[in-house]
Amino acid sequence: MANKIQLRRGTKAQLATLGALSVAEPGYCTDTKELFIGNESGGNTPLVTATSADITYYVRTDGSDSNTGLSNTAGGAFKTINKAISMIPRIVNHIILVNVAAGTYVEKINLSGYSGKGSIGVVGIAPTTTFVQSIEIVGCSIIMTVDSFTCTTITAAAVTIVSSIGAVINQVTATASASTMPGISLNLAKARLASCVISNKMRVIDAVNASECYAENFTGTGNGANYYAQLGAQINWAGSQASSTAGNVIASGAIVSGGVLNPWGDNTAESRPMAEMGRTVDQSASAGTWNKLLLNSALYNTKNVASTVNNRMVAPETGVYLLNVRVAISNTGVGRAAIGAFVNGNLNAILIEQTSDASQLGLSLGSSSLLRLSAGEYVEIYLIPTQNVSVSSGDPYTHISLIRVA
To answer: CA dihedral in degrees (68, 69, 74, 78; nearest 10)?
Structure first.
């Protein structure tokens, strides 16, 4: 006669009331279709590692990790988020949802090694009421959504995504001061990021090693840099951005794009150093001497190139810059005038020199020049007329621009 194997069976809630399985004793959950075997540490080891149905777990601060996690009550919900995550098989072919109630959870949301055809969502009530230390998604090939949390860590990135595709981060807030840490870090990853509040970080998003992400409607203040892409990474964005000192930054073949190619085809319109300056009132210029143009208006200013305090433009990084100058002067009569570009207080180039006759009431002087500038070097524009003149104000008449082109 064949021997029979005794099998403990029932719903997950029913089996939980009976306690842990004995060593080598099998157990089968009729509702979740999971199969376990008792282990020597007093726990249950899952034998079926793939999901068989959609499931929702609940987490509350007044719950218990000895509960089943299947009902949203103190007697049914788990106490920790990672307990709920530990119940999810590594192969996910269904929709798995972890609902997290308001409260403070002193833990990192850790999602790693999931694959299959389904999805996992870990969702808080709201960023203003649901707090965790940080979020980490590693080695996952299914859609992983984390929504509505505030991350409190100051020793690591608030959100870390590594070697994963399909990560979705919504409504995550990270404002604790961490000037050496990014808000969101991506390494060999693909992600969609939306409606996050990132403040007081080294970088809002730090993407490296061919990572790709789309960022939409970010806010926040006090960041060192905004979207920082390097080593072939690409960050596409739309809507609002958090504010930062350096703006968007690219390095080593990376791309940061608002969706429109600039004339160079490299998507750096938002991070390329550039300034346009002018004057709001007329300026007198004396004959026979170099008169510095007092540029008191910044029409466009990326990476703090324009300095209206010092009436100059400053190169924030080493490179080749294109300088364009347009200056209109009046009351010239018979005479000459020249425009000079000064770098660090020294004449670098005479841009244009022009003569007027008795019938002319003024001159319009325009020219351009390529300048090789090191980081920190500054450019000032000077005018030398042969008689006293007035420099016309207003952008159509007097306009200076500097942009890095290489």
So the answer is: 100
Give the percent of the chain with pLDDT over 70. Answer: 92
C-beta separation of 10 from 32 below 8 A: no
CATH for 51-257 is: 2.160.20.10
pLDDT for position 243 = 94
5-38 burial: b if 16+ Cβ within 10 Å, else e: eeebeeebeebbeeebbeeebbbbbebbebbbeb
**Regarding the domain delimited by 1-48, which CATH topology (the fold level of the hierarchy) does it fall under?**
Seminal Fluid Protein  PDC-109 (Domain B) (2.10.10)
Tell me the CA distances in angstroms from 51 to 15, 55, 168, 325, one per residue in order.
Answer: 18, 9, 21, 67
Residue 2: predicted pLDDT: 57
pLDDT in tens, 219-261: 999 999 999 999 999 999 999 999 999 889 988 888 888 765 5
What are the residue ranges spanned by the domains of the chain?
1-48, 51-257, 274-404
| Res. 157: pLDDT tops 60 | yes
Bridge partners for 95 per DSSP: 119
- Please state the rounded mean pLDDT for residues 346-354: 92
In angstroms, the Cα distances linking 117 to 30, 109, 142, 286, 318 are 22, 22, 7, 77, 48
- Which residues share a beta bridge with 23? 38
Q: How many helices (H) and strands (E) does the chain have?
A: 2, 38
Strands 399-404 and 274-278: antiparallel
Measure the CA angle with vertex 113, ends 107 and 118; round to 5°: 100
* 115 torsion bin: left (phi>0), alpha (psi -120 to 50), beta (else): beta
What average pLDDT does range 171-191 have in this prediction?
97
